[in-house]
Automatic annotation (TrEMBL):
<protein>
    <recommendedName>
        <fullName>UbiC transcription regulator-associated domain-containing protein</fullName>
    </recommendedName>
</protein>
<dbReference type="InterPro" id="IPR028978">
    <property type="entry name" value="Chorismate_lyase_/UTRA_dom_sf"/>
</dbReference>
<dbReference type="InterPro" id="IPR011663">
    <property type="entry name" value="UTRA"/>
</dbReference>
<feature type="domain" description="UbiC transcription regulator-associated">
    <location>
        <begin position="26"/>
        <end position="167"/>
    </location>
</feature>
<dbReference type="Pfam" id="PF07702">
    <property type="entry name" value="UTRA"/>
</dbReference>
<dbReference type="InterPro" id="IPR050679">
    <property type="entry name" value="Bact_HTH_transcr_reg"/>
</dbReference>
Length: 179
């Protein structure tokens, strides 16, 4: 099973209720998703830096497992600052309807820009077990930090992809035709 994960994410896909479901549907793949965890947890160094909090400070984590034709392919975790999102519908244990982005915007946070980092590395024990990776198989970690129009960090999305189950097509900026 190989899934394409466009970098950067196309605007039409980005605006969908589920990025993964939209990507999978366009590729003829049956997408599945289930929540693994919703609640506070200590921020790792890279999440803390993106959210501008101290490493180890509690942040809200919303972790889900994404599958393609019943094969686990991604662990996606959204992180939020508790000073901005504690006690809001973003803390609900289920998927946010109609979309997470709509839920963020309903709380007054309008998207301004994002920064995305990509890293290939060996998996943690949790990642290897959850994604059912073979020994020696690597993961690709994508961290997208989303900022409001005033520059406030409002959402960090960390996606852990089974490297052998993904192709990462790189898109051009609209109107550009050179690499």
């Amino acid at each position: 099973m190989v899934v394409r994960r466009a970098l950067p994410t196309e605007p039409a896909v980005r605006a969908s209720a589920s990025l993964f479901a939209a990507e999978a549907e366009r590729q003829g793949i049956r997408a599945g998703r289930r929540m693994l965890h919703v609640g506070p947890e200590p921020a790792s160094e890279h999440v803390a830096a993106a959210l501008r909090v101290e490493p180890g400070a509690d942040v809200l984590a919303r972790r889900k497992l994404l599958s393609a034709d019943d094969v686990p392919v991604r662990i996606a975790t959204s992180y939020f600052r508790l000073d901005l999102f504690a006690g809001t519908p973003i803390c609900a244990p289920d998927f946010i309807r109609p979309s997470l982005q709509a839920g963020i915007e309903a709380l007054g946070h309008r998207f301004g820009h994002a920064e995305e980092e990509l890293l290939a590395r060996p998996p943690s024990e949790f990642e290897a077990g959850t994604l059912r990776l073979d020994p020696g198989e690597w993961i690709v970690q994508i961290v997208r930090a989303g900022y409001s129009v005033d520059g406030t960090p409002v959402h960090v999305l960390e996606t852990i992809c089974a490297a052998s189950r993904h192709v990462f097509p790189i898109g051009q900026v609209t109107g550009a035709d050179e690499f």
